[in-house]
Structure formats: structure tokens, C-alpha cells
Amino acid sequence: MTTTFATQRNTTGLPPALRTAQAAMQSAEVQDMLRRLSKHGLGICMPHMHDEMTGGFQLLPDELVQVEADLEVSFQRTAEVVKQAGRFLPVAWVWRDGTSMPSAVCEMVQDEDASDDDERVVKHKMPPPN
Predict the structure, then answer these.
(1) Shortest CA distance to 87 belongs to which of 71, 110, 118?
(2) CB-facing half-sphere around the CA of 120: CA atoms within 13 A
């Protein structure tokens, strides 16, 4: 079985559900899922956020999605992000209410330099150059 970096010592401050997630990574079942997912270029994530005052780990609420834009992470309402699907590329998913839902997205932009005949390249939204 693969060894992970989590130890009992560094997971004690996590909420119970996140400690369960960390412990699950040690299980043969999850290691097998990870092995199968890797054949598709996928991995496993632990959706979470942090308390703004303490930095403590928190569960990612169902109504929020992690958004990366301009090389910064924020948390936005899932319902608002879903309405703008063409603007965001899902990069992590969770199973909610019987369906797959994004838990993390990257904001994308189209390459405006491409000619009309070329296929426009979609890339990650970056901060403006200094």
C-alpha cells in the first residue's frame, strides 16, 4: 500500500469529516480508486477552505465552490458559478444530491490574439503584467 504524508499528529486539528478523509487515503479501497483514476489523468482532492481568522481547516460548504483566478483562490456561491459555466473550467468535483458537481474551478479567458480563422485558445485568467 502507498504511504501518504498524513500522520495522526498533523490531522488532530482537522474537523472529523476531514480527518476521516485523510484516514481514508490509507485504505486499500481508496488507493485502488486512485490507481484507477490516475489512468484518466485524475487524482483525489479533499474539498476544504480555511477560517479567515485562524487559518483552521473547514469543510467546503455545499453552497460554495473554490475559484482560482489571477493566481488567487477565492470562494464563491456555487449557484452563481454554475450560471457562468462558459467562464469557468471545473478542476475538482464532488458527489452531491445524486450528481457530480464542481467543487473547484479555474476562471478562463479566450486568447483574443487568435484570428477568426484560428480556433481560439482558452487559457487560465492571469493577473495583468506589471
Answers:
(1) 110
(2) 9
43-52 pLDDT tens trace: 999 999 999 9
User: How many CB atoms within 10 Å of residue 104?
Assistant: 20
| Confidence (pTM) | 0.80
Closest to 65 measured CA to CA, from 101, 97, 15, 100: 101
Contacts of 49 by beta carbon, 8 Å cutoff, 6+ apart: 57, 58, 59, 60, 64, 66, 75
What the block records as the C-alpha cell of 60 is 467546503
Cell numbers found for residue 9: 499528529
Give the HSE-up count for residue 11: Cα atoms under 13 Å, Cβ half-sphere. Answer: 16
pLDDT digit string (tens) for 71-112?
Answer: 899 999 999 998 998 899 999 999 999 999 999 999 998 766
